[in-house]
Amino acid sequence: MKFNGTEEAIEFGKVASKEEVALMKRVRVVCVNAFENMFDSEDFDLLAEIATQGQLMREAVEASNYN
After folding, report:
1. Mean pLDDT of all residues in the chain?
2. Beta carbons of 56 and 49 less than 8 angstroms apart
3. pLDDT grade for 1, boundaries at 50, 70 and 90
4. SS3 of 44, please?
């Protein structure tokens, strides 16, 4: 599961099932943990992608009926 932007994440969140929201919550935790574990790396593009996806997962979850 990957979003290309805020609007896409929010629209998906609005229609997401309870199971999909649970998955997005788990993916967000994985993103946060990966970001923290890789913070000292110099792969800034990957860090930015991980942070962005974590943020988009949060936005989708917040737009859902199951947050």
Report:
1. 96
2. no
3. confident
4. helix
